[in-house]
Every structure is written in structure tokens, then in C-alpha cells.
Specification:
- The structure is a single chain.
- By secondary structure, this protein is an alpha/beta fold.
- The protein has two domains: 335 residues, Alpha-Beta Barrel (TIM Barrel); 73 residues, no CATH class.
- The chain is built from 15 helices and 13 strands.
- Strands 1, 2, 3, 4, 9, 10, 11, 12 and 13 form a nine-stranded parallel β-sheet that branches. Strands 5-6 form a two-stranded antiparallel ribbon. Strands 7-8 form a two-stranded antiparallel sheet.
- Strand 5 and strand 6 form a beta hairpin.
- Helix 1 packs parallel to helix 14, helix 4 packs across helix 6 and helix 7 crosses helix 8.
- The two termini are 34 Å apart.
- The structure holds flavin mononucleotide.
- Flavin mononucleotide binds next to helix 7 and helix 11.
- This is FMN-dependent oxidoreductase (Nitrilotriacetate monooxygenase family).
Length: 430
């Protein structure tokens, strides 16, 4: 389950039952984590970015921009939960791998093997400006840095052989020097000697999640990721092709196809009838000012569109490409290749297509079909409203999935790796 504090829609925080004043209180998150664990979710993935969305005034005025940083929060949640995986978002562009190896490795110890990290490359210039740069690294460089980052982090986790640290009070021998490995990494972006001041984590390596469907993003996933978040809105044949593409990339990198899990994003909007579900989605949309939706599209296309007419046919020159989230940029391009849109129709379509309105049965059918027809190994649930969307899903859709035998009634008390069916990777020095 993915969560932005207020929910998946730009203005989900305005929905009835929302608690926008509580986004920095621990109890708010503890309630989600416990509800998700009871419902049998394998992991709670905490989304994060390193900036306030203030390129446009509407972003500051209308978007819930505040949240705690992941490691303090997930560390505290290790005490409130027992089985659910805890996945922290880490920007490989604006972190150092030594810090990340310690943070994620420590979370793995504190949670007894439930840690994961979501590798993001950070897509906004606003983030660059918080770290001494005027502009973000270009897309390809971000992904090269991401790949090198993974090599360094996993290398640092292998610093100590299992069993090398075995304190013997009588002899005064704390560790066996033969079991220590100094990484000595020198690459394009990092020089890291190592070793890490932490033993090898309980899972060997905490589970690596990743999102990003650009060519560079898929290449990185095929090489390193163990679970990948992919857009979920494509019709079944497209979703199957995407699924197979990731599996083939894993195989091309000498990995087993089952060791890269493909988890399409799903944002259900549930109603007792299909009409009621659609009405609920429209209620959410009605809470989003047009200006904010327009600024959202401007952000993703990298051009301020505020002086363009909203209700005339919209034309856009895509040849300049994007240094932002390419998945969204390409999504707009493909949509406009197929159909004509006004600007208003375009942002409405883009913002709507990530949501699946339906009855609990329809949503369970959709999930079951994808799961059993080679399009998903699981799902990344991003709820349109919180906490209500999660509670409603747990009460209505989860029992249907359990009854159909596609979801276990309870999460076994095990590591995140075991719950996801992933093997423990051997140390690179073995
Ligand atoms: C389900 C999902 C969750 C994501 N969560 C985050 C996040 O928490 N922080 C972030 O900076 N980017 C997040 N992203 C964005 C991706 O990490 C990535 O930067 C983006 O998809 C752009 O990659 P691309 O240019 O390869 O398409 C998320 C993407 C998806 C699909």
C-alpha cells in the first residue's frame, strides 16, 4: 500500500473524514499501519519528496505539502506493528549511499527483517534547489547515479560476513577481521571506502522497490529492482505487455522472472453501485480548483500553460522531451496522439485515469483478472481518500479477495522478503 498522507488525489485532504491537521502526528500513521496490517497488506510504502510544490501559487495554497521524513516515522512504526513491511522512499539523487545503507539497514534490524526501500530519482528542479543545484540532473544521469547508488548500498550491506561479528567476552574478541570487507568503491558519482558500521541486515538486503516506466527506469528495474510500481490504468492487453516487458528485462539480466514483482498502481473509489462510485469520484474532482489541475499539467509538461484558453483545442510540441516524470509526459503524448482535447478535457482525463470507480465486486474482479492473467503479481494501492478509503477497502474488497483465494487471510509473521516470496540474496563476497 502506498501512502501520501492525505490520499492519492491532489485535494483528497478536503474529503469528509480527512484529518489534514494531523499529518505530523504519529497516531495518524499508526492507525493506517495497524489497519493495513490487519487487512493483510504485505507492506506499507511511504511516499516522499524533498520539496514543497511551490512552482505555482495554487500548489502552496491547495496541496497538502507537509509530512514527516520516512525513517523516524517508520522506525516508530516498528513498535506499533508486527508483520507488515515498512518501505521508505529514498532519493538516489539527493542522498549519499552510506547514509542510506545505514538508515535502511538499521530499519531492517529494528523491524526484524521488514524493511524495504523505494528508489526514486527525484524529478523536480525544486528538489535540486534544496541541495545546492539550480536544475535537476538530467534524466539519464539521474538513472546512472541511481544504478551506482544501488551498487554502493548493497556493497556496504555486505561489509560483514554473517557470523563475523560474534562478541566473546572471555577472550575479548568482538569480530573476526577475516569476515570484514572494505568496499573501496570509486565510480562516476561516488567514492566510498566502507566498510559499513552495521552487520549484514536480517534480510541480507532489504527489499528494493522502484517506480518509473521510462526506458531508463525500466532498465534500472530489470537490473536491480525486486518489486516495481507500474501505472495501473492501461487496459488488460497493455498491462500484460508491460508486465512481460519487466519480466523479460529481469531475465535478460540473468535473474529469475519471479524475482521481479510487478505491482500496478490501483486507486479504487468504492460505491454500493457503479453509479454511486462514479458520483463519489466526481465529488472528489469537484474539490480540485481548475487552476490547480492546470498547474499540475504545466508542471508535468514543463511549460506554464496558464495563459492558454481552457476550452479550445490544445496543441503541444513534444519534441523538446521532458526532464520531469517521463511516464506522465509520455502518457499525455500518447493520449493526444489518439484523440483531440481541450486543455480542460486533457487535465481532467489525466487526473481521472488513475482512479478506478466501482463496487467492491467490480474492483475485486479487476484485481483478480489482472492477478490471474499475467498482468500483476500484486498491487500498489493508493487510496483516493484517507483514512476512509483504506478502511472501506479492508472491510469490503479484502474479504472478497480472500474468498476467491487470491489473498491470504492473514499475513504470516515473517520477513518482508518471505511474505513477497523473494529469496535472500547471497553476499557478493561469498
Ligand atoms: C506508485 C508510484 C509511487 C511513486 N512514489 C514516489 C515518491 O514517493 N517519491 C518520488 O519522488 N517519486 C515517486 N514516484 C515517481 C517515480 O519514482 C519516478 O520518479 C517517476 O515515475 C519518474 O520516472 P520516469 O521518468 O522513469 O518515468 C512514484 C511513482 C509511482 C508510479
Amino acid at each position: 500500500m502506498v501512502f501520501y498522507p492525505g490520499g492519492e488525489h491532489l485535494t483528497s485532504w478536503r474529503l469528509p473524514g480527512g484529518r489534514p491537521a494531523d499529518y505530523v502526528t504519529f497516531e495518524y500513521y499508526e492507525h493506517f499501519a495497524r489497519t493495513a496490517e490487519r487487512a493483510g497488506f504485505a507492506a506499507l510504502f511511504y511516499a516522499d519528496e524533498l520539496y514543497v510544490w511551490d512552482r505555482f501559487a495554487s500548489g502552496v495554497e491547495h496541496v497538502a505539502n507537509v509530512r514527516p521524513e520516512p525513517f523516524g516515522l517508520l522506525g516508530a512504526l516498528t513498535r506499533s506493528t508486527e508483520r507488515i513491511g515498512l518501505v521508505a522512499t529514498v532519493s538516489t539523487t539527493y542522498n549519499e549511499p552510506f547514509h542510506t545503507a545505514r538508515q535502511v539497514g538499521s530499519l531492517d534490524f529494528l523491524s526484524s527483517g521488514r524493511a524495504g526501500w523505494n528508489l526514486v530519482t527525484s524529478a523536480s528542479d525544486e528538489e535540486a534547489r534544496n541541495f545546492g543545484l539550480e536544475r535537476n540532473l538530467d534524466h539519464a544521469a539521474r538513472y546512472r547515479r541511481g544504478a551506482e547508488f544501488v551498487e554502493v548500498v548493497t556493497g556496504l550491506w555486505d561489509s560483514w560476513d554473517d557470523g563475523a561479528i560474534r562478541p566473546d567476552v572471555a577472550s575479548g574478541r568482538y569480530a573476526d577481521p577475516a569476515g570484514l570487507h572494505v568496499l573501496g568503491h570509486e565510480g562516476e558519482f561516488f567514492r566510498v571506502r566502507g566498510p559499513l558500521n552495521l552487520p549484514r541486515p536480517p534480510q541480507g538486503r532489504p527489499v528494493l522497490f522502484q517506480a518509473g516506466s521510462s526506458e531508463d527506469g525500466r532498465a534500472l528495474a530489470g537490473r536491480y529492482a525486486e518489486a516495481v510500481f507500474v501505472p495501473g490504468s492501461a487496459p488488460l492487453p497493455g498491462a500484460q505487455r508491460l508486465y512481460e516487458d519487466y519480466k523479460q528485462r529481469a531475465v535478460a539480466n540473468g535473474r529469475a522472472r519471479e524475482h521481479l514483482l510487478v505491482l500496478p498502481a490501483l486507486s479504487p473509489v468504492l460505491g454500493e453501485t457503479p453509479a454511486r462510485a462514479l458520483e463519489k469520484l466526481e465529488e472528489i474532482e469537484a474539490l480540485t480548483p481548475d487552476r490547480l489541475s492546470l498547474d499540475w499539467l504545466s508542471h508535468h509538461l514543463g511549460v506554464d500553460l496558464s495563459d492558454r484558453p481552457l476550452d479550445e483545442r490544445f496543441e503541444f510540441d513534444f519534441t523538446g522531451g521532458s526532464n520531469q516524470v517521463q511516464t506522465v509526459f509520455e502518457g499525455v503524448r500518447k493520449l493526444m496522439d489518439r484523440e483531440r482535447f481541450t486543455l480542460r478535457e486533457l487535465y481532467r482525463t489525466m487526473l481521472r485515469r488513475r482512479f478506478l470507480p466501482g463496487t467492491p465486486e467490480q474492483v475485486a474482479d479487476w484485481m483478480t483478472e489482472r492477478f490471474t492473467h499475467g498482468a500483476a503479481d500484486g498491487f500498489t494501492l493508493a487510496f483516493s481518500s484517507l483514512p476512509a478509503g483504506l478502511e472501506e477497502f479492508a472491510e469490503t474488497v479484502v474479504p472478497l479477495l480472500v474468498a476467491r483465494g487470491v489473498l491470504a487471510a492473514e499475513l504470516p509473521a515473517a520477513t518482508l522478503r518471505e511474505n513477497l516470496g523473494l529469496p535472500v540474496p547471497p553476499s557478493r563476497y561469498r
